[in-house]
């Protein structure tokens, strides 16, 4: 069972649902989930979840990136990038930990860097 503190850290702070579109700049702390369409820049101190069915075109800088939808662009994750079985990433990744589950798609360049992964 998760502790109260852990639940607060994992709480979704913002959500872009299916059928919605947004273009611009997103800055956040905590966790954000995108299930719709987004185009622009994303910066955050926390976790960005790209849900199944999402279509994202962005330059991303976050702590953790979880990809279940389609992402085009570049991403820098200080701790971890994970592409789920339904995820597709086309672009450039910089991160210390990179995981692709069976069925996940990655086409592009990846740069593995030492970072904060040991703390995670």
Write a structural description:
The chain has 120 residues and is mainly β. Helices cover 6% and strands 66% of the residues. The chain is built from one helix and eight strands. It has one helix at residues 4-10; strands at 12-16, 21-34, 37-50, 55-67, 70-83, 88-95, 98-100, 105-112. Strands 1, 2, 3, 4, 5, 6, 7 and 8 form an eight-stranded parallel beta sheet that branches. Residues 1-8 have low confidence and may be disordered.
Helix fraction, binned, reads: under 10%
Distance between the termini: 19 Å
Biggest sheet record: 8 strands, parallel
Structural class: mainly beta
Low-confidence stretches: 1-8
Mean pLDDT: 87
Using brief descriptors, characterize the structure shown.
single chain; 120 residues; mainly beta; 8-stranded parallel beta sheet; 8 strands; 6% helix; disordered N terminus
How is the topology of this model organized?
Blueprint: H1 4-10, E1 12-16, E2 21-34, E3 37-50, E4 55-67, E5 70-83, E6 88-95, E7 98-100, E8 105-112
Parallel strand pairs: 1-2, 2-3, 3-4, 4-5, 5-6, 5-7, 6-8
Quick synopsis:
The chain is mostly beta strands and 120 residues long.
